[in-house]
Amino acid sequence: MQTSDIIQRLNYNAKIFDEILSVIPEAQARWKPAPDKWSMLEVVNHLYDEERDDFRKRLDLTLHQPETEWPPIDPPGWVMSHKYMEQNFNESVIHFLAERTASISWLRSLKSPGWEHVHNHPKFGPIKAGDLLVSWLTHDYLHIRQLVNLNVLFMQELAQPYSTRYASP
Question: CA dist 136 to 67, 102, 105, 133, 159, Å?
């Protein structure tokens, strides 16, 4: 797959996220299938933080300063420290999509990026810039699946006393 295709898919995914999230009421956005699972609000704020503080920042460093240590991230800890559940859902969606727009603009502005540049990560070992780019896209798909699954689980609960078993035997 060409890197231009990956960037185009990241751009397209912004539309998918917008379509999935634009019809979600605040109450559903805050709903959790279990206390230890994330709500849609938490997922969106995670995507916002990852967009800004993980993928774009770390890819930039790998492309331009591969020897530089990456800034630390703490996605599970950010849920509490960034107070995800205290955020406004619609504003969180807007913030994430604005960051995605900035990311796409930045990615498209890169002139002859060194996708083979390598950062030596202490946990994962050598990571190429291209590895980060495809991981970014994969991260999108994992969270699109998560958001769709949260919709299914919410519908199953909302449907009571009816059952959704006919939808998927």
Answer: 21, 15, 15, 5, 35
